[in-house]
Design brief:
Length: 78
């Protein structure tokens, strides 16, 4: 099953995350199918590719709880 989830990047104690599409059985930092944005929790900065995200959601990809919250805050999902 494909999931829309966060992949950790950045240094120790300075996280940043990439929003990726990957199989739910893959490890957190495994190879993604597609990268559709990034999120920095320290500076609260994010950049999502809305067209790609909506395309994948129409294909049936399920976002994780954290990603769902981010998408609602950025008003991509109602």
């Amino acid at each position: 099953m494909l999931k829309l989830r966060l992949k950790r990047a950045g240094r120790k104690r300075s996280p940043s995350y990439r929003l990726v599409i990957m199989e739910n059985s893959y490890r957190r930092d495994g190879r993604p199918i597609d990268e559709v944005g990034y999120y920095n929790p320290i500076s609260k900065q994010y950049n999502f590719e809305v067209d790609k995200i909506k395309k994948w959601l129409n294909y049936g990809v399920k976002p994780t709880a954290t990603v769902l919250t981010l998408l609602k805050k950025s008003e991509i999902i109602d």
